[in-house]
Amino acid sequence: MASAVPSSSGADAPASRRRTAGVTFAAKLVFEDIHHCYHAKETIRGISLTAEAGEVLCLLGPSGSGKTTLLRIAAGIEAQASGRLLLNDREISGPNVFLPPEKRGVGLMFQDFALFPHLTIRENVRFGLTSLPKAEGLAEADIALERVGLSHYADQYPHVLSGGEQQRVALARALAPRPAVLLMDEPFSGLDSRLKDTIRADTLAILRETRATAIVVTHDAEEAMRMGDRIALLKDGRLQQVGTAEDLYRAPKTLFAAGFFSEINEFSVRVRNGLAETPLGTVSAVNCAEGADIAAVVRLSAVSVTESGGAIPARIISRRFLGVVELLTLAVPGSDMPVRARIRAEGLRQGLRDVSLSVNERDIMLFEKDARTS
Fold first, then answer.
1. 12 phi and psi, to 5 degrees?
2. CB 203 within 8 A of CB 31
3. 27-81, pLDDT tens digit by residue?
4. How far apart are CA 183 and CA 67, in angstroms?
5. Domains in the chain, start-ordered, CATH in brackets?
6. 3-state SS of 257-311?
7. What would the 3-class secondary structure string for 44-102 be?
8. Per residue in 118-135, pLDDT tens?
9. Does pTM top 0.85 for this prediction?
C-alpha cells in the first residue's frame, strides 16, 4: 500500500534503542524523458533518470530547479506533460496510464508537518494502513514506532513532541506500509544544525534496514554527499550531471556543477597557444578552442598560503576566523579580482600582510563560459 505523508524536522533518540526495520521489496524507478509545465512555463525539460532498487538517490539543486516537481510526479500528485514513469519496468504514468498515488507503492514525506493533532501518535502512524484490520494496523504502527525509537510516545499526542520527534513519527508513518520507493522532500530543512548529523545518520540507517529505494530532495550539497549513493544535480528543470559524490566533486562537467559543490575563485581568461594563463598559474587548454574566452576555476581549499616560498606573491586584504579554518581575501599581481583561500586556523601568524600562494596545476579547472547555464 502507498502513503503520502508530509514531514519535516528530526529527532535524537539513539539507534541502539530502535527495533530493526522491516524489509521492503525495493523497486527500480525510472523517469523517461519527463516534461512538465506550470501555466505554459516549462519546469521539467526532458529529464531521464533512474533510481536503482535499494539505493538512496539525492536530487540536488537550487530553488526552482525542478526537484520537488519531479518528486510530486513520482508520487502521482502531479502529472507530467509528456514522458513515462516506470516502476520495476511497469508503466505507472504515461500517455495511456496514470496510477493514483495509493496504487503506486510509493511513500512521500513533505517538508512541513502533517501530524493530526486530535490523533495519538500510534493513530497518526496507523493512518496510512487503513486497508488493514484495525488491530493489525495498530500492531504495525507499534512496530514502526519502535523502529524509530518512539514507542513510549504511542499514546501521547503530537503537541508533546519536539520538532525532531515529529519528524521521526512522520518517517515511521511513511515506512509503515513498507513502500517500494520512499520520496523525501528536504526532510531535514527544519532541523537545528546540532541535530542534523545525528538525525541524518539515524534516518540513513533506517533506510538501509528497510532496503527501500529512497529519493531525497535537498538544496544542500554536503547533505547530498552524506546521504546519497548517487546524486542527480538539476538546474532550471534540466539534469546537469549524475554520479557519486566523488564523481561530481572531482570531475564536474560544468561551471555550475563546480560552483555548487564548493566555493570557487573564478577568472575569465583567453586561450593562447593551447594554454590558459590565470593569476594562479598557467595550465594546458588543448581541449579548448584557440582564442576562446573561458572560465578558470580554483577551489578556495586548493589555494596554499605560506609566509614565503610560494610561486605567487600576495597581500592579505582581509582575514576572517571561522573556527577550524580562516577565510582569507588576497590581492595578487595580474588580477583586478581578489583571490579567496580557506586555510587551517592559526596557520599564519597574526599581523602578517605579505604572503605567497601556490596552486597545483591539476586544481585549476577550465570551463566554457556558457557551461553554467547548459
1. -135, 15
2. no
3. 999 999 999 999 889 999 999 999 999 999 999 999 999 999 999 999 999 999 9
4. 11
5. 3-250 (3.40.50.300), 263-373 (2.40.50.140)
6. HHHHHCCEEEEEEEEECCEEEECCEEEECCCCCCCCEEEEEEEHHHCEEECCCCC
7. EEEEEEEECCCCEEEEECCCCCCHHHHHHHHHCCCCCCEEEEEECCEEEECCCCECCHH
8. 999 999 999 878 788 999
9. yes
